[in-house]
Fold this protein.
Amino acid sequence: MNDDRLDLLHRDATDPLAAFRDEFLIPRGPDGRDVAYFTGNSLGLQPRAARSMVERELDRWAEFAVEGHFRGDLPWMDYHAALRDHLAELAGALPHEVVAMNTLTVNLHLMMVSFYRPTPERPAILIERHAFPSDRHAVESQIRFHGHDPATSLIEVDGDGPGGTLTADAIADALDRHGHRIALVLLPGVQYLTGQRLDLAAIAPLAHRKGCAVGYDLAHAIGNVPVDLHASHADFAVWCTYKYLNGGPGAVAGCFVHERHAHTPRPRFAGWWGHDPATRFHMAPEFVPAAGADGWQLSNPPILAMAPLRASLEQFHRAGLGRLRAKSIAMTGFLAARIRERVDRVLEVRTPDDPAQRGCQLSLRVRGSREEGRSLHSWLEREGVVVDWREPDVIRAAPVPLYNRLSDCARLVDAVEAWSRSR
């Protein structure tokens, strides 16, 4: 075993967060070893505690049936509230500003009902040109629903920085030119294709000065980078929990509504579970919304789908986002440096070098043809290195600090080197 390998094993063994890896179920590769899993940006691994959390609720259902809503140490009536504090911790929010509910795109539509209020003079929504398709589909459909044409009312800001990243100047320029027409600015916390982290605290004040509402999609940011939604003064934010938050496939999503809208007269789609809990069971016909983000709920929480998320959020709370972020910066920096040192002829790092402008994910453009890129991706799969592919030429690799190690990063680069030698 060479000195480099010994050094990496020592650094992994002395990592203060190393024990968290054992709290996850790691898939096995073709050779029977644990895979080097780099797709937590797409679906996080399963916490070992998730199964017992779900089984616990199944047992309560068997024992109590309908009375499970009111009996036991965590009655189902209040189950969503048990996620509130840890979600707020990760979102940089006050507890009453967040709620776990629905799925990401459903929540985005619900937020646009309240915060996209177009007028003939101000009908537009500003997004990034390479927004994740579900966001674009949702935005276009909202524009059409309100009787406007996306051809004129969907404004796209283009990436003008290295690797297609967005500069602050590009966003400011778009707001200067179009702000008088923009009803809503919708941008990501971390861009899914480039891995760039945006400065959310800087964007919201610029947009608000132009009279725009501001919403953020944190699908690739929550649990990945520090987020301070309350201080950013965003009007709302939405996110999924199956990526970095390890909530499981299709897990219950999250939503933030700034406290200044806690008692807003803005319109919303209403449901019984969003009714003020103090009078919910009076069964009156009038809708009285709960204060804060809870008032946007529609239906009672899906307990079996929320249980795995409880397990994950408790892990994040114990690990601490500060420690996780420090390890993430170290691992991602190590991986970027080793790629440039060993396989620069194969891969180009598109994600910004500045740690403040990125999270776990590195977006790696494959130099050469698409066919070569697909060949490399297939090779990595056979080597037990799990990354994902985004058309036309990007491999995304996300070293997640809860369960990845420096030796995983080295294994990825070794596998790329082996593919290159085989060509």
Notes: The first strand starts at residue 24 and ends at 25. Residues 321-342 form the longest helix (22 residues).
